Amino acid sequence: MSLTLTTFASGAVIDASTMYAKVASIELYLNEQTVAADRGSAWADSNQIYRPDFFGAPCPHTTLTSGESYYQYVGRDVASRRYSTQYLNTTSWIPVPGLCTTIQIPESLRQGSYYYRLAVFASFYVYEWGAQSDATNGLDQDSKQAGSVSLHIAGTDGLAPRKLMKGSMGASGPGPTDLNNTAYYPRKHVSMAYVSTDPQSNGVYNVGVLWRNNATTPNLVKHVIFAQGNLVARYYLR
Description:
Structural class: mainly beta
CATH topology of the largest domain: Jelly Rolls
Oligomer: single chain
Shape: elongated
Number of strands: 13
CATH architecture of the largest domain: Sandwich
C-alpha cells in the first residue's frame, strides 16, 4: 500500500504530539505496511535503513531498527566475583551487582502480536561457603537450602527461580553431608530464561538476577558467591 501524508495547514498549531503522529505513521509504513508494488529497483539505500548503535559501559547495549539488546558480564577472576551474606537481608530478593541492568523502552510492547517481546537470559556460577557446620541432618533438597536465585523483570520478582544448596566448611568441621555421610560442597552453574509481554507502557525498567536467603538460623549460611556470569535482555517493538 502507498503512504499519503497531509501537510500542515497555514497557521495550524504544530506541537510535539502532531509531529510525533506524522513520524509514527511513516515508521509504521516503513516497518510493517510496505508491499512489493511500493518498491522499485534498488529502492533501498542508507536513508531507509537505520544502522545499529553500540554503547559501552556502564550500560552496554545495542540499539537496532526495531528494538534493543542489553548485556552485563561478571568476570571469572577473584576480583570480579560478587559476594553476599544472609545478614544483608533475610526475607527480600536482593539484586546481584554486575548481573542487573536498566533498559529504556520507547513505547508499549503490547502492539499487534505482542507475544514474547521482552526476553531475559542469565547464566552464572554460584555457591555458598563459610558457614558453621550443620552435620546433624543429611543433605536433601529442602532442609539444606542456602537460598534461591531468580530473575527480576519490570517490577516483578521471583521469576524462573532456582534453589541454591549449602556447601560449607565451618569451624566445627564439614557442613552438609550426602547419604553416605560424606562432606558435600555443591557448586552450581545456573541458567535462566524468561519471556514477557510487559511492560505495557514506555519508560525505564530494571531487569536482572536476584538472590534471597532461605536459612532462618544465623550462621548456617554465610557467604554466597557469584562468579563468571552474564545477563542478556533484549526486546523488539514490531
